[in-house]
Amino acid sequence: MDLRRIFKTPNPVIGVVHLAPLPTSPRWGEDLRVVLDRAEREATALAAGGVDGIIVENFFDAPFAKSQVDPAVVSAMSLIVSRLMHMVTVPIGINVLRNDARSAMAIATCVRAHFIRVNVLTGVMATDQGLIEGQAHELLRYRRELGSDVKIFADVLVKHARPLGSPNLTTAVQETIERGLADGVILSGWATGRPPSQEDLELAKAAAGSTPVFIGSGANWENIGTLMQAADGVIVSSSLKRHGRIEEPIDPIRVSRFVEAMRRSLSSSDARQTMPSAKLQSSEV
Prior knowledge:
Radius of gyration: 19 Å
Helix content: 40-55%
Strand content: 15-25%
Number of helices: 9
Shape: globular
Low-confidence stretches: none
């Protein structure tokens, strides 16, 4: 998959809009206008800071439904994402937590969003919601039934979960791509705000081949240069919030700082890659 077809860059920064509690969630505030206003401010701040894409999540609906959210959540997210797509020009994706990939695909297709994130596409993971089984066969058939071209970015050994049996990262990446038909894979640390190890990223990148690998958690402007040595893109949230706290709103200054750090690291990497050829040409002359 060529990321430039969606994001206009081979190395996108995807910022996250964490929606305030939605209808039927335990902390629902009974005013969708408040949720929508906050989402608009967050998306605007991310776009102004220079991100290449945005993903919208029902993050504050915890504790999450395991596999199917209430229809009110689907309706609310459809309304919100549709509104955001008319406000910002960057591509938008959807993640319906904890693992309602079918609803995410339906929303994305109907509002013409570009991609979805699926926490468990293949295999079985033990989570705080219980055992979650990947439903790749249902999701891929549903996408075809809808006539949709929405891309599927799938977590591998997702955070806040443990696989049944002994985990093998290389095998998990390969099966997510080859048997789950994911368009991109996401590698996270063990929890929100925790980065994956460099070793794991390198293993995932080697196993993924030409399929894009995204950093799914824990990236900040201090470590992004190192992490991107073995990744194609990044999904980032916590470090873009005010004071770096997950419950705070997006800080556009922190967004700009992160994007600048990312671009500097990519420029430095490109310069290092061209140095050997430049030296060779000089010696030939």
